[in-house]
């Protein structure tokens, strides 16, 4: 996805620790969430994610004891020079 013109919701910049689980493989990954909307998130991670891969996601907010838990799918993923950047679409639209 090349730009916000293709998004249903505006993204807000953020700086959150995220944990991912690749549902088909059972593999867990650390990630960093850099933007979020009701419909999805943008992340950095150390691994290339496959487009269409289903994920279980935990977003860790400062001051909260329990992370926010969601399910989503990888919409795009690419190398950015330091690691991998990916766009994740939530399976359901959520209010934050």
Topology, please?
Blueprint: E1 12-22, E2 27-36, E3 40-45, E4 54-60, E5 68-79, E6 84-90
Antiparallel strand pairs: 1-2, 1-4, 2-3, 3-6, 4-5, 5-6
Structural class: mainly beta
The overall strand count is 6
> Biggest β-sheet, characterized?
6 strands, antiparallel, barrel
What is the alpha-carbon Rg in Å? Answer: 12 Å
- Helicity level, as a percent range? under 10%
Mean pLDDT level: 89
What string gives the helices and strands in order?
Answer: EEEEEE
Strand order of the largest sheet: 1-2-3-6-5-4
Which regions contain 5 or more consecutive residues with pLDDT less than 50?
A: none
Total number of helical segments? 0
Give a verbal description of the structure:
The structure is a single chain. The protein has 96 residues and is mainly β. It has a domain at 23-63 and 73-96. It has no helices and 6 strands. Strands 1-2-3-6-5-4 form a 6-stranded antiparallel β-barrel. The chain starts with 11 loop residues before the first strand and ends in a 6-residue tail after the last strand. The mean pLDDT is 89.
